[in-house]
Amino acid sequence: MSAHADLIAQLADVGRTAVAQGLVLASGGNLSARLPGSDEFVVTGTGTYLDRLDASAFSVVRLDGQVRGGNPKPSSEWRLHQRTYLVRPDVNAVIHLHPQYAVLLDALGHQVRLISLDQAYYVRKVSRVPYFPSGSDELADAAAEAARHCNAIILGFHGCSCLADTIAMGFRRAQNLEQAAMTTFRCIQLGNTDLTFPPEWFDRLTTV
User: C-alpha distances in angstroms, 151 versus 96, 115, 128, 176, 189?
Assistant: First the structure.
């Protein structure tokens, strides 16, 4: 299997799992991965359902924004992926989903707290950007700026962008971000407003 085909297979698997876990609905969200050794990335096309992805659903886009192959209509959010890759050469995958607890807490003005070991270990830090229209340069630029120092970004009233050097790690961060949001929500229901993973241990976790 070529590197291109392998990345598409991995992204398609993430898409199916994300839909099954309720992290995105219908044609919401988009996924991408950098093609090894090139200035191009594959990204889901406009209107594609993440649980129905095959090779025809993906566009090949160069980092200068030129569509180089595959689906001729990349996701309207292709700039979100492109700008992140430009500022983070270490990032090889961008997972953009619509996790409802994370979006809701952020909209209500609550910070998503990292409480469990997995949440602290995989997410590390949660950043946010305010609402900008979907597909806009403003959203892409704001998310890219946040990505300079963070791998898990909540997009206000919209979704999340989770980054990693591999597709699997990017998705794991998205899953743990939403679990952290659910845990935070339950803490708030119970009247707790400050519980987090023990700070004295947080800085001693191995960086991932």
Answer: 12, 17, 11, 12, 28
For the domain made up of 3-202, the CATH class stated in words is: alpha beta
Exposure string over 116-139, b if 16+ CB within 10 A, otherwise e: eeebbbbbbebbbbeebeeeeeeb
Task: Give pTM, 2 decimals.
Answer: 0.96
List the chain domain ranges: 3-202
Strand-by-strand arrangement of the 159-164 sheet? 67-70, 58-62, 40-44, 30-34, 93-97, 159-164, 152-155, 126-129
Question: How far is Cα 141 from Cα 136, in angstroms, rounded to an integer?
Answer: 9
Q: Strand, helix or coil at 180? A: helix
Distance CA 105, CA 169 (A): 23
| Residue pLDDT, tens place only, 163-207 | 999 999 999 999 999 999 999 999 999 999 999 999 989 888 875
